[in-house]
Every structure is written in structure tokens, then in C-alpha cells.
Design brief:
Elements lengths: L2 H11 L1 E6 L5 E4 L5 E2 L11 H7 L2 E6 L21 E4 H13 L1 H10 L1
Antiparallel strand pairs: 1-2, 1-4, 2-3, 4-5
Length: about 110
């Protein structure tokens, strides 16, 4: 999985995907597909593609904005999806599953 794949996954699934960099900082790929490194104050001394290749654990945080059902602090609190930690293998499976499983399942449902 490369950074472009991770960006696509974050947009399709509406996740904020966090992973640790080797220098201890964190990269967050937003639900808009933007890779951000909070606290970075200048030109980085690293390559995000290289850092992503070394990452083994990812935090998937569902992106829930104020425009979602129930609004901010609304009644969906206990039913709202929670952040979860996944391995690289699980993230790869999510990425390949999001590209191929959504449309065929929808087509089958429409035909019934």
C-alpha cells in the first residue's frame, strides 16, 4: 500500500488514518485525503512514502462532522463508530475490499 492508496481509502471510507513516523511524530491522512504531520514546523527530513512503508500499525478514526446525523453532541453518541487500531495486513484488506466489494453487492440487492 502506498500513500495514494491510503488517501483513496480515507476518502471512500471517511476515515482519519493515523500512523507513527520513525522519528516519533504522527501522520494523519484526513477524510479529504490530505496527509498532515501535526507539529511539523519546516521542511521535513523524511519521506512520507518511506515512513508509510515502515509503519505496521494504523488508527482508523471515523470522520464525523457537525453535518452528520444528529449533529454535534447529538443522540448518536453510543451508536457512533469508534476509533480502532489495525495492522498493515488488515488495512490492506480494507483497501482491496473497498474497491471491489461495494458495487457488486449493491447490484445483487437491486436484482432481488
Amino acid at each position: 500500500m502506498n500513500l495514494a492508496d491510503l488517501r483513496k481509502l480515507s476518502i471512500k471510507r471517511q476515515y482519519r488514518i493515523h500512523f507513527r513516523l520513525q522519528n516519533g511524530m504522527e501522520c494523519v491522512v484526513t477524510e479529504h485525503g490530505t496527509a498532515q504531520v501535526p507539529g511539523l514546523a519546516g521542511v521535513p527530513g523524511f519521506n512520507l512514502e518511506t515512513e508509510l512503508a515502515a509503519a505496521r500499525e494504523f488508527l482508523l478514526e471515523p470522520a464525523q462532522g457537525p453535518t452528520g446525523p444528529g449533529g454535534p453532541g447529538g443522540a448518536g453518541g453510543k451508536d457512533a463508530p469508534r476509533p480502532r487500531t489495525v495492522s498493515r495486513e488488515e488495512l490492506d484488506a480494507l483497501s482491496t475490499g473497498s474497491a471491489g466489494s461495494g458495487a457488486p453487492a449493491h447490484d445483487e440487492h437491486d436484482g432481488e
